[in-house]
Amino acid sequence: MSRGLRWIMYGNPAIVAISASFLSLGCGYHTAGHTTAIPQDVHTIAIPAFVNQTHTYKIEQMLTAAVVREMVTRTNYRVLDQTGDDADATLRGTVLSTYTTPLTYDSVTGRAASVLVVISMNVSLQDKHGKILYQNPSYLFREQYAVSRDPNAFFQEDTPALQRLSRDFAQTLVSNILEAF
C-alpha cells in the first residue's frame, strides 16, 4: 500500500469519519419488500369479496380476484376467500364510487374518443384482534381507454380497461401493504 493511501486511510481520522458517514447515508432509496407492515405471526390472510356501493356491474368481483391473484403470486401467505378463525388477518375493501369522464372528442363526430374511468375504494387490513395493519380510506385508481369510432362495433373497451385497472390496483395495493406505505 502506498504511503499516501495509508495516510488517507489511517493518518487523518476526520477524513475516515466523513467517508464512513457518507457511505452509511446511501441514496435514500430502499429495496422493495425491505420492510413489512404485516407482523411475523401472520401466515394466513382472508380476502372476502369486496363490497360494491356503486352501480358498476361486478367491479367488486374483478378487484377482489385481482388482489387475491396478486397476493398468491407475490407472497407466501395462505389466502382464504372468507373470514374465519383460521385467518390471522383480513383484507377488506369497499368500492365507494366509480365514474367515467370523456378525455378527448372526435372532431368529426363530436363523440368521445377516449374516456377516463376512476374508482375510489376504502381498503383495510386488520389482524384477528382488530388491530389495523394497513388502511387507506380513499384509494383512487384511474384507467384511460379509447372508444371505438364505429358505433356498430361489437367490441367495447370499457371491460378490458376495468380489468387493467383491477390488475394495476392489486399490484399497487399489495406493494403498499408489504412495504408499509
Q: What structural class do you assign from the helix and strand content? A: alpha/beta
Global mean pLDDT? 80
DSSP summary, beta strand count: 6
Gross morphology = elongated
Q: Proportion of β residues?
A: 25-35%
Taking the sheet with the most strands, its summary is: 6 strands, mixed
Summed up, the helix count is 4
Oligomer: single chain
Give the end-to-end Cα distance, rounded to a whole number of Å: 47 Å
Number of domains: 2
Task: Provide structural commentary.
This protein has four helices and six strands, in the order ααββαββββα. The protein folds into two domains: 1-30, no CATH class; 33-178, 2-Layer Sandwich (Double Stranded RNA Binding Domain). The protein starts with a helix and ends with a helix. The chain has 181 residues and is an alpha/beta fold. The longest helix is centred in the C-terminal third of the chain and has 21 residues, at 158-178. Helix 3 packs across helix 4. A hairpin with a 4-residue loop joins strand 5 and strand 6 (132-146). Strands 1, 2, 3, 4, 5 and 6 form a six-stranded mixed sheet that branches.
